[in-house]
């Protein structure tokens, strides 16, 4: 089976967020335990498996994402990486490719400038009390906490860009918080520059100490900063060690996320999957 590693939300190798991608032949899924073992072996924040669907349905491909710990409901950068693999192989025969997923049907397309756009549901933010131990886990005072609905992460507002960039959280304490992951954010020092807000994402409870660039997080970040800044199109910079830019456009209850991708590894997975299942 062919397997690729694609760096997403970047235009150069060894930046952005790497995801492993397997395009399956079908018609059935391999054993879930085997897919999880592949994700553990790859040891990336996400490994994506895409299965072609019969023509005439509501979707073209069925897409699933696995962290080293478990399967997840939504992943932006691995979706972008999968789209890049499909486009590279000439397997797109329509403007928008439709992915069936645990988060419903997701739309994605390649752009003329070489970038890719994802069309995802927006996740609203609702103020909530700071969980006990949050400031201690992050190692800094926080300005506010927000529930992100179906995304299931805690969005945390910090004072400024410098605080976000210099953060060194206690990951054991972060993993003990009652949330899937912690998404910290602050306004950019220069909102007239290349990006208007910064963020970082910590998900040790999901086997992801720090995610380099988290596309799904921007389904909550985009509505939050659009309301704060009074604009529907804006760019976020995820200030991890690898770093990456995510262009966001809010359209009602949807968010369009755009970025580039680069294949850095293309190989053959020799392990055989277990018995297929429907």
Describe this structure as you would to a colleague.
The protein is globular, with a radius of gyration of 18 Å. The protein is an alpha+beta fold and 278 residues long. It has an 18-stranded mixed sheet that branches. Helix content is 19%, strand content 37%. The longest helix has 13 residues, at 76-88. The protein has helices at 32-42, 76-88, 134-138, 161-166, 171-175, 218-229; strands at 2-8, 17-23, 47-52, 61-66, 71-72, 97-101, 104-110, 116-121, 126-128, 144-147, 154-157, 182-187, 197-203, 208-211, 233-238, 244-251, 254-259, 261-268. A hairpin with a 6-residue loop joins β10 (144-147) and β11.
Protein topology:
Blueprint: E1 2-8, E2 17-23, H1 32-42, E3 47-52, E4 61-66, E5 71-72, H2 76-88, E6 97-101, E7 104-110, E8 116-121, E9 126-128, H3 134-138, E10 144-147, E11 154-157, H4 161-166, H5 171-175, E12 182-187, E13 197-203, E14 208-211, H6 218-229, E15 233-238, E16 244-251, E17 254-259, E18 261-268
Rg on CA atoms, Å: 18 Å
Ranges where pLDDT stays below 50 over 5 or more residues in a row are none
Structure annotation, total helices: 6
Helix content: 10-25%
Shape: globular
How far apart are the termini?
19 Å
The overall pLDDT, averaged over residues, is 95
Structural class: alpha+beta
Largest sheet: 18 strands, mixed
Q: How many β-strand runs?
A: 18
Summarize the structure.
This protein is of the alpha+beta class. 19% of the residues lie in helices and 37% in strands. The protein has an 18-stranded mixed sheet that branches.
């Amino acid at each position: 089976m062919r397997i690729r590693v694609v760096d997403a939300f970047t235009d150069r190798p060894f930046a952005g967020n790497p995801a492993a991608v397997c395009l399956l032949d079908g018609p059935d899924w391999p054993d879930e335990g085997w897919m999880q073992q592949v994700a553990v072996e790859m040891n990336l924040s996400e490994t994506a498996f895409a299965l072609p669907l019969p023509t005439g349905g509501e979707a073209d491909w069925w897409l699933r994402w696995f962290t080293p710990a478990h399967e997840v409901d939504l992943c932006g950068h691995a979706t972008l990486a999968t789209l890049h693999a499909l486009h590279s192989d000439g397997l797109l025969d329509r403007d928008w490719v439709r992915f069936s997923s645990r988060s419903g049907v997701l739309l994605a397309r390649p752009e003329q400038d070489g970038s890719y756009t994802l069309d995802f549901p927006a996740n609203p933010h609702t103020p909530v009390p700071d969980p006990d131990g949050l400031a201690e886990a992050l190692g800094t005072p926080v300005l506010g906490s927000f529930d992100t609905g179906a995304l299931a992460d805690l969005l945390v507002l910090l004072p400024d860009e410098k605080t976000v960039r210099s953060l060194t959280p206690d990951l054991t304490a972060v993993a003990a918080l009652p949330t899937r992951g912690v998404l910290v954010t602050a306004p950019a020092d220069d909102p007239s520059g290349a990006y208007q807000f910064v963020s970082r994402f910590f998900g040790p409870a999901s086997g992801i100490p720090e995610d380099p660039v988290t596309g799904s997080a921007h389904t909550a970040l985009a509505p939050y900063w659009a309301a704060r800044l009074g604009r529907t199109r804006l760019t976020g910079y995820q200030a991890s060690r690898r770093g990456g830019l995510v262009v966001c456009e809010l359209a009602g209850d949807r968010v369009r996320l755009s970025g580039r991708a680069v294949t850095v590894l293309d190989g053959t997975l020799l392990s055989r999957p277990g018995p297929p299942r429907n």
